[in-house]
Fold M48 family metallopeptidase.
Amino acid sequence: MSHPAGGQPSEAAERPPRATGTSAVEVRRSARRSRTVSAYREGDRTIVLIPARMSEAEERRWVGVMLDKLAAQESRRILGDGELTERAERLSSQYFSGRVTPTSVRWVTNQNTRWGSCTPAEGSIRLSHRLQGMPEYVVDYVLVHELAHLLVPGHGPRFWRLLESYPRTERARGYLEGVIAAERLPHLPVTDGER
């Protein structure tokens, strides 16, 4: 995945990997790369290739952009219910020390006002089909949210303390709030001149 970016060539440099969420990010600077930024996954690491003369601020911005683009690209592949269950178990292990194991996790098409729901007595989690195609970190946030509900009902302080362990909670909530806000905007007609 490549995108054009500003910056002039200079000597190549490689940054040590840094952890972001569940994987490490390694930034590689290249004197031969003058205008593009690209990224790819290599095992559990993400490699971001940038022009050598890019500033630290530009680097941080482009790393974020490329992580989001990779996540969106990966989440376009719709996970099956079995994969969702495996993912929930992995998230439970990572963020809740495996204290909660859902009996089932599945997509449903009858949740148009909620992103997810659960039934603690059964240990089941349901995710709205509207999440399909959203970035991976957003789907993971909803799974973590519902896993937390299997431990703590309601949205009290104890519940929110559990969610603090997921590092992209605020970002995912902002994304979902943006989706809701966009859905509420009036749809303006497109004229021939705007196409």
Remarks:
- Residues 78 and 132 are 6 Å apart (CA to CA).
- The first helix runs from residue 56 to 75.
- Residues 6-22 have pLDDT under 50 and may be disordered.
